[in-house]
Amino acid sequence: MKLNMRLLGGLAAAALSLFALSGCTFISDPVSQMKVPQLSGDKASLMAAINSSLKTLDATLLRPANDDNSSIFTEDLDNDGIMETLVFYETKNEAVVIHGMILEKHEDTWVKKLVFDGDGTVLDSVELKDVTGDGKLNIVTGYSRGEEKGVKGMVVYSYSGGELEEILTKPYTKYIIGDLNEDGIPDITVVYFKRNEFATIATYQYNDSFKLLDELDDLDPYFNSYYNIVSGKVAANKEGIVLDSAVDSRSAYTTVVVMDNNKLRVVIPGDARTFKDRKIVSEDIDMDGVIEIGILVPPKGWEYFDPETIPYFNSYYKWDGKEGLTFSTQLYNDPLDRFTINFAPEWQERVTIDTKSVQNKSLKFIMTDTGETVAEVSFFSPAEWDRVKNTGWKLLGRDLDKMIGYRGELEQNTIGGEEGRVKSSIERKGIDE
Predict the structure, then answer these.
(1) Are 410 and 394 in contact (CB under 8 A)?
(2) pLDDT at 150
(3) What mean pLDDT is predicted for residues 382-400?
(4) Core-most of 257, 366, 384, 396, by most CB within 10 Å?
(5) CA gap 47, 109 in Å, rounded
(6) Nearest-5° angle of CA 297, CA 298, CA 301?
(7) Where is the signal peptide, in residue numbers (predicted)?
(8) For residue 258, what pLDDT band results from cuts at 50, 70 and 90?
(9) Which of 137, 112, 135, 117 is nearest to 127 (CA)?
(10) Average pLDDT over residues 332-355
(11) Are 397 and 7 in contact (CB under 8 A)?
């Protein structure tokens, strides 16, 4: 279960987003996900065809690791007006355990057209995208061998006229389908990393066949792993790739790569500017369409305290389009991801934490210019919570034997265009007081 809350405190509007996690996990197999009550005739016919084939093969339907909802993909792959369905299945006691199957719809019947072997023991990803620019959907898959961490293989298939062809195969750590060189034609960028040996980035584009546009093969491989790789806008008008690298179990740094004139270029190297003592995921944190890089920054007044005791702020920066970074936004993220406090724009870099605060006990957020307290977060035993819960404290979440509470001045925001309706700035989910 996940708790998401937002608190606006004080005289300015500061948003408090609160997340609490519990141990609730729900796992279902891919076959049960397809058991939809009262299937339409078309769906029933498709399921009957799939189940018949699986039963004959003594096989189990597979769901790719990158898709929580679907194990059955139905599209007109070759743009000929005939619908196809793609599924993957697993067989036991065979040298090849992963297989794909394509069925075509003919009138009211689904007919098996072909089967093919997958190269691995785990189906990591399946995407149906036009990566050749011909208006037809390609099948892009990622396979791995689960016991061999980091060993993955990407395969791009072209399906046409009832035949399947492999048109690109590459080992990868992460592949990205996009338009990195911004020429309006799809491309595929492959990030491939082996610790202490190599770290490469290569971009391929289709022109009769896939051709290498450019490759970076001199990146520093001396880190533990990539814990986050994301692509998108890295500046207002520039596509790029942001790579978050884990140096060890805690610290990390970030690298930004773009493509200019079909040449890959590192614009922000993984150096002291992006180093952090705690892993922070690069993302579009302020929802403006541009990816930001997170850095750990001590609140004002904490600069000379023991680093282990500092309740760091997460400060996010954008690439400035040249050689530097510009400040974007700041928030407080609990080290154990139990809650997050987002400060409104007018509060950015104007809030600090009282130096008498202690993590996992009590945090007091104050204004740097006046010392005014604008929000507090404290941890209580159940007995302590019973004494204070009606004295202005609100329940934020639970952590083992502790109750996490907050307090501060709250504001109400009127929903635009709906006169008379008022939406509280606190959104509380999954909490039972």
Answers:
(1) no
(2) 65
(3) 91
(4) 396
(5) 11
(6) 145
(7) 1-22
(8) very high
(9) 137
(10) 88
(11) no
What's the pLDDT at 14? 39
C-beta of residue 50 within 8 angstroms of C-beta of residue 31: no
**What are the tens digits of pLDDT across the range 109-118?**
999 999 999 9
Strand-pair partners of 243: 229, 255
CA distance 127 to 117: 17
Could you tell me which of 4, 3, 11, 17 has the C-alpha nearest to residue 411? 11
Q: Name the CA dihedral angle for 173, 176, 291, 289, rounded to a multiple of 10 degrees.
A: -160
pTM of the model: 0.82
Specify the amino acid at residue 348: Q
* Cα–Cα distance, 351 to 357 (Å, whole number): 14
Which two three-digit tokens encode residue 56? Answer: 């004959």
CA distance 196 to 150: 13
Query: Over the stretch 137-188, which tens digit does the pLDDT of each residue have?
Result: 999 999 998 766 667 999 999 999 899 999 999 999 999 999 999 999 999 9
Token couple for 146: 């689960």
Residue 55 CA to its chain's centroid (Å): 36
Rounded Cα gap, residues 354 and 367, in angstroms: 9
Tokens representing 405? Answer: 């509470």
Whether 407 contacts 430, CB under 8 Å: no
CB atoms within 10 A of CB 105: 18
- Rounded Cα gap, residues 372 and 391, in angstroms: 20
Tell me, what DSSP letter sits at residue 12? T
d(CA 256, CA 282): 10
